Amino acid sequence: MKALSKIGLTSHKKEERDEAASLKRAMEKFSFSHETDLSIAVQLLDCAIADLSAYREHFEESKQAAQGLSEKWGVSKAFENTRARKVKAHF
Predict the structure, then answer these.
(1) What is residue 12's DSSP assignment?
(2) Mapping DSSP to helix (H, G, I), strand (E, B) and coil, where does residue 62 land?
(3) Residue 36 to residue 43: CA distance in whole angstroms
(4) Whether residues 14 and 38 fall in one domain
(5) What gap in Å lies between CA 20 and CA 55, rounded to an integer?
(6) Would residue 88 count as lying in a domain?
(7) What are the boundaries of the region Disordered (predicted)?
(8) Which residues are CB-contacts of 21 (< 8 A; sequence separation ≥ 6)?
(9) Which positions ≥6 away from 69 have C-beta within 8 Å?
(10) Domain assignment present for 82
(11) What backbone torsions phi and psi does residue 43 show, to the nearest 5 degrees?
């Protein structure tokens, strides 16, 4: 909570401030249970980390599978490139 408050007060980026404020509101509304078993939460987080790292290791295979599906369905297989941001010059 303190970290979210600090980000909300010190960040120069509006998106970061807004996201920190919304996360802080969500955390304030969240009801914490005394019966929560932290070992189960740790196990679930470990499983999630393992799944994400496995996906990251096999990303090229997933990308090739997506390209194969796009050819099969007749959809353009070009991935979108992010456009270059234009910075407005203030003089």
Answers:
(1) S
(2) helix
(3) 13
(4) no
(5) 28
(6) no
(7) 1-20
(8) 4, 8
(9) none
(10) no
(11) -65, -40
- Which amino acid, 34? H
Query: Cβ distance 16 to 7 under 8 Å?
Result: yes
Residue 54 sits in the same domain as residue 25: no
Identify whether the C-beta of residue 70 lies closer than 8 Å to the C-beta of residue 78. Answer: no
The reply to whether the predicted model has a pTM over 0.70 is no
Whole-number Cα distances in Å, 41 to 23, 37, 46: 20, 7, 9
Specify the number of domains making up the chain: 2
* Mean pLDDT in consecutive groups of 10 residues from the start of the chain, 91 residues: 84 89 86 77 93 92 89 80 77 65
- What count of other Cβ atoms lies within 10 Å of the Cβ of residue 8? 17
Domain assignment present for 86: no
Tokens of 64: 């090739």
Range of 16's domain? 1-30
